C-alpha cells in the first residue's frame, strides 16, 4: 500500500489556502502519472467551495511528485503528493480552479510560445504574533543587516528554510535556491526554471511546483510551531514587503535577438498594467509603494538592472541580447496560476501590431 496526500486550493477569499487529506492507494506502476491515481471528493461546505445541499466537490489529480514527509525507514512503498484540480459534482470546472483557467489560455494558443517561468517566493516566519527575530517589545535593529545574512543575531529560521529545501529536492521539485531576506525571519526560495536537462519549466508545471513547495513549507513550519505568512506587507512601517517575482521567457526571447521580443512583451504589459495588478495579490498597494525596491502600484516602469522598476531586464540578459524578463509586481500571496495566465495571455496572445 502507498500513501497519497491529495492537495487542493480551497475557496478562501481573497487568498486561496491549501487543503489536503491522505488516503492509501494501490498502484500498478512504480512511476505513476496523475491518471494512475483515482479521482476523489471532499466536503465543499467546509472549504468555502459549496453550499450544504449539494456539498460534494471532485478532486482530479494533475501533478504527482514523491512525498518526502513520511520518515518511516522500514516502509517499502513510495508515498506521493498528488496535486488536484477541483470540479463541481456535475463535472464542470469549479470557479476556484484557477489552474483550469491557465490550462484554457495555454490551449487557446499561448502554448505555442513555449513559455518558461521561474518564481521567487518570499515569505515571513511568525511565532507568538511576530516575525522570528522580532523582540517581544519594541523593534529589532533597522533592516540592512538581515538580507543574505549569517549569524544568530540576524538570520532567524534557517533550520526551516533548509529543511524545506531538502524536502523540495527529495520530492523532485524544480527547487533552485534560497536566501535570507530583508527583515528578520523573512526568507526567499526560487522554484521553476533552472536550466537543467529533462526538466519541464512550462507555466503549468512550474506553478504546480510552487504550490507544492508552499505546501511543504507549511508542513515543515508546523513541526516547529511556526506560521508561514505570505502577506505582502507582514510588518507595517519602514520594512520590506514580500513578493513573488515572476521571471518569464518565450522561445523567441531565449533565441538570437530575443531582446526585441522582450521589449515587445514589456510594451504589451504596460498597456494591461491594471488588469495584471488586479490578480497579483491581496493588499498589493501596501507593498507596491515606490519604496523598498518596488515601483508604485499606479506606475509602470521598465528598467535595466533596476530593482525599483515594475519589469526588470537583468544585466546579463541585456548583455547577452536574449533571455527573460522579471515581473517584480506580484506579491507573495499571489496565485502563480493567475500570474502565469495573465502574463501568457498578454505576451503570447495579443499582437503587438
Ligand atoms: P534576483 O533575486 O536577482 O531577482 P533570482 O536568482 O532569485 O534573481 O531569481 C531569478 C530566477 O529567474 C531564477 O530562479 C530562474 O528560475 C529564473 N530564470 C532564469 N532564466 C530564465 C528563463 N530563461 N526563463 C524563465 N525564468 C528564468
Ligand atoms: Mn467524514
Ligand atoms: Mn531573488
Ligand atoms: Mn527577494
Ligand atoms: Mn527578483
UniProtKB/TrEMBL annotation:
UniProtKB keywords: ATP-binding, Cytoplasm, Ligase, Nitrogen fixation, Nucleotide-binding
Assigned EC number: 6.3.1.2
GO terms for biological process, alphabetical: glutamine biosynthetic process
Cell compartments where the protein resides: Cytoplasm
Cellular component GO terms held in the UniProt record: cytoplasm
Xref: Pfam families: Gln-synt_C (PF00120)
InterPro entries, A to Z: Gln_synt_N, Gln_synt_N_sf, Gln_synth/guanido_kin_cat_dom, Gln_synth_cat_dom, Glutamine_Synthetase
Chief place where the protein resides: cytoplasm
Top EC class, one word: ligase
Keyword Metal-binding set for record: no
Cofactor: Mg(2+)
Reaction(s) catalysed (UniProt annotation): L-glutamate + NH4(+) + ATP = L-glutamine + ADP + phosphate + H(+)
Recorded superkingdom: Bacteria
MF GO annotations: ATP binding; glutamine synthetase activity
Annotated GS catalytic domain residues: 98-353
Domain GS beta-grasp: 2-91
Signal peptide feature range: none
Family annotation (SUPFAM superfamilies): Glutamine synthetase, N-terminal domain, Glutamine synthetase/guanido kinase
ATP-binding is among the record's keywords: yes
PROSITE patterns from the UniProt entry: GS_BETA_GRASP, GS_CATALYTIC
Similarity field: Belongs to the glutamine synthetase family.
Quaternary data: Homooctamer and homotetramer.
Function: Catalyzes the ATP-dependent biosynthesis of glutamine from glutamate and ammonia.
Name of the molecule in the record: glutamine synthetase
Organism field: Aquisalinus luteolus
Encoding gene (name): glnA
